[in-house]
Amino acid sequence: MGHGLRALRAVWPQASLAGVEWSWPLALATKLRCPWARIERADMWRGSWAGHDLVYLFQRPESMARALAKADSEMRPGSWVVSLEFEAAGRRPHARMALPSG
């Protein structure tokens, strides 16, 4: 519903932000909450990640390997993949944030 986009915009207001959401109610809610971002209702697995400097994922642990393979094949060197909560197994993170909730 745009929480991640809003947080990114607070840190990088000059960034061009886009979101992809499969659920049409969530895509609509995000469009209303983030009118400055380009939001599309689509399948993130079908769309290209090429051209993005950062892809911020809200995925489940079982889909992280697929997401990393997609990033490796489509994103240019130096771009970032950020996971909200789940570890990218077999990868050394550039950074890791610990939340008060653990």
Task: Tell me what you see in this structure.
With 102 residues, the chain is α/β, with parallel strands linked by helices. 29% of the residues lie in helices and 16% in strands. The chain contains 3 helices and 4 strands. It has helices at residues 3-11, 24-33, 64-74, and strands at residues 18-21, 38-41, 54-57, 80-83. The strands form 2 sheets. A two-stranded parallel sheet has the order 1-2. It has a two-stranded parallel sheet with strand order 3-4. β1, α2 (24-33) and β2 form a beta-alpha-beta unit. The radius of gyration is 14 Å and the shape is globular. The mean pLDDT is 88.
The H/E string reads: HEHEEHE
The coarse silhouette is globular
Q: Going across the major beta sheet, what is the strand order?
A: 1-2
Total number of helical segments?
3
* CA-CA gap between termini: 23 Å
Overall average pLDDT: 88
Helix/strand class: alpha/beta
Question: What's a concise summary of this model?
Answer:
By secondary structure, this protein is an alpha/beta fold.
Write the layout of secondary structure elements.
Blueprint: H1 3-11, E1 18-21, H2 24-33, E2 38-41, E3 54-57, H3 64-74, E4 80-83
Parallel strand pairs: 1-2, 3-4
Keywords:
102 residues, alpha/beta, two-stranded parallel sheet
